[in-house]
Amino acid sequence: MALDRIENLIEKYFEGETSSAEENELKVYFSSPDVAQHLAQYQSVFGYFSQAKTQQFKVTIPLIPKRRDKKRTYVAWLSIAASVVVLFGIATFMYTNEKAATSGDLGSFDDPEIALAETQKALTLVSQKINVGKQSIRYINEYQKSKNKIFKK
After folding, report:
1. What is the DSSP string of 51-97?
2. Distance of CA 75 to the CA centre of its chain
3. What is the distance, to the nearest Å, from the Cα of residue 14 to the centroid of all Cα atoms in its chain?
4. In whole angstroms, how far apart are CA 14 and each of 5, 8, 50, 110, 126?
5. pLDDT tens column, 112-141
6. What is the rounded CA–CA span in Å between residue 118 and residue 112?
7. What integer is the mean pLDDT of 86-114?
8. Distance between CA 60 and CA 43 in Å, rounded?
9. Which residues contact 85 (CB under 8 A, 6 or more apart)?
């Protein structure tokens, strides 16, 4: 009769309908040495629970967090700086665009010679600013070379 009860409890267990007391009864039965031959295949399932109780976690967890990678920090700051530059550019564009719309002067010329002269002035100004930017990039390249010599990868 006890064997029939164990078989019914196994069916209930795999259906997920057992109570804690019934599960404990199964654990006790399968941890004993006199398990029926046809139920021996379930012994490893229920034997695991008694074995898992004895295991202990022995790895220590450090309380001090690890320092972040310097390259990741550099990339983070670089992305923040790029975001600020983009926002500054958008704000400047919006401000100058609003000023031009309110002033009424649309920058058009009746005389083509004056228009050509003004266009050349604007392009010269842009060219000067780009050349200044190129000189800055040279300094950055020299810095990168020096840094790579000091901090070999």
Report:
1. HHHH----PPPPSSPPPPPHHHHHHHHHHHHHHHHHHHHHHHHHHHH
2. 13
3. 39
4. 14, 10, 18, 91, 77
5. 898 899 899 999 998 888 887 777 777 777
6. 10
7. 79
8. 33
9. none
Question: 50: pLDDT confidence band, cut at 50, 70 and 90?
Answer: low
- Tokens in use for 2? 């006890």
Q: How far, in Å, CA of 137 to CA of 96, rounded?
A: 28
Which of 41, 50, 28, 38 has the alpha carbon at shortest distance from 4? 38
Q: To the nearest 10°, the Cα dihedral for 105, 108, 114, 118?
A: 70
105 pLDDT exceeds 60?
no
DSSP 104: -
* pTM (predicted TM-score): 0.35
* Radius of gyration (C-alpha) of the chain in whole angstroms: 39
Q: What is the DSSP letter of 5?
A: H
Residue with tokens 């958008």: 90
